[in-house]
Amino acid sequence: MNVPSSLFKPFTSDKLTLPNRIVMAPMTRGFSPGGVPGPDVADYYRRRAAGGVGLIITEGTGINHPSSVSGESIPLFYGEEALQGWANVVKAVHDAGGKIMPQLWHVGTARRSGDLPNAEAHPVSPSGISMAGEAAYEPLTEEEIHALIQAYAQAAADAKRIGFDGIELHGAHGYLIDQFFWGQTNRRTDKYGGDLVRRTQFAVEVIKACRAAVGPDFPIVLRFSQWKMGSYEARLVESPDELKQFLEPLSAAGVDIFHCSTRRFWLPEFEGSDLNLAGWTQKLTGKPAISVGSVGLEAEFVERGSEKQETGDAHLDLLDEKMVNGEFDLIALGRVLLSDPEWPIKVQEGHNADIIPFTKEVLSRLQ
């Protein structure tokens, strides 16, 4: 296998410069007791920076709202102790020569009543409708929506203050922002609901508030997806024209880079074209796009001892072809970086045989 040279070309946009095209995808780890990332979390991210990742996007971090996350060890992005923990992460990554953005997150009704860290807080969503389509809670009031928007903006301001290189807003996978995007969970009749374009209004106001908080030169990334947790066939849009309608207000609001979450990067998004979701997004907006989805993972497994392990260099020729063709600008890696923090260096140097394959066991520890 040839070295995929496209991965190792510098990336430059008007607000972000990276040494290569490799992004560490956000992956929930849940190793921050009390919501505070400790030295082990800082070292976890430092190793990926030292291993050659161009940009790290952290696991989802809870904005300042009682029901933003579900789990007492999910990291928070508010409060002096948690923010100091993140400042230590930033320093560790920068000292290793990397760049890093926090993913700002609210899970919406993916949270259940009684979940920690705030067991008394009820889940929130645009219309009080669960991901299963059931009316379960009271819809958010406009006053509550405005408070949520300000919580995102405060997190963005804090990210800039403590030295991050940008922010990513989690608008994918059926979490809060995506619940506003999706017609099944957003049945509002005010300005935050209605047709596809009107359902972007909450995100538009979040993006604008974040931009006002960080100024014109701080990168804002938006992650979005068609699929939802537990609903892999869900779709926000059915055609390039609908995707354009969806993306235009978000782009105009101030998104600098779109992170287009798909499960397999090589699959076309619409009939009649080989472009994936990131390819179409770049084409329609003219803005950089991050692709993602099973990079380096095979459908087949390689036997090693008693465990089945996924190989770490699969699909790289196809990835290289798509990036050489300019279909998208950056590629996010997930599981391969959990198993082997030095994946980028090994691939660049042609040491693919030395890549440590992914196994589910690596999910049980922070390494």
Task: Offer a quick outline of the entry.
It contains ten helices and twelve strands. It is α/β, with parallel strands linked by helices and 367 residues long. The chain has an eight-stranded parallel barrel with strand order 3-4-5-6-7-8-9-12, surrounded by five helices. A two-stranded antiparallel sheet has the order 1-2. It has a two-stranded antiparallel sheet with strand order 10-11.
- Secondary-structure content class: alpha/beta
| Share of helical residues | 25-40%
Overall geometry: globular
Instruction: Kindly report the average pLDDT value.
Output: 94
N-to-C terminal Cα separation, in Å?
Answer: 28 Å
Regions with little confidence, pLDDT below 50 for 5+ residues: 299-307
Element string (H = helix, E = strand): EEEHEHEHEHHEHEHEEEHEHH
Rg from C-alpha positions?
20 Å
The proportion of strand residues reads 15-25%
Give the strand order of the largest sheet, numbering strands 1, 2, ... along the chain. Answer: 3-4-5-6-7-8-9-12
How many strands appear in the DSSP assignment?
12
State the oligomer.
single chain
Please give the largest β-sheet. Answer: 8 strands, parallel, barrel
Count of alpha/pi helices: 10
Structural notes for this entry:
- The protein is α/β, with parallel strands linked by helices and 367 residues long.
- Helix content is 30%, strand content 15%.
- The protein has 10 helices and 12 strands.
- It has helices spanning 39-50, 80-95, 142-161, 176-181, 201-214, 240-253, 277-285, 316-324, 335-339, 343-348; strands at 11-12, 17-18, 22-24, 55-62, 100-105, 167-173, 220-228, 257-261, 289-292, 302-304, 307-309, 330-333.
- Strands 3-4-5-6-7-8-9-12 form an 8-stranded parallel β-barrel, surrounded by 5 helices. The chain has a two-stranded antiparallel ribbon with strand order 1-2. A two-stranded antiparallel ribbon has the order 10-11.
- Helix 1 (39-50) links the parallel strand 3 (22-24) and strand 4 (55-62).
- Helix 6 (240-253) packs across helix 7.
- The longest helix is centred in the middle third of the chain and has 20 residues, at 142-161.
- The radius of gyration is 20 Å and the shape is globular.
- The two termini are 28 Å apart.
- Mean pLDDT is 94; it is low at 299-307.
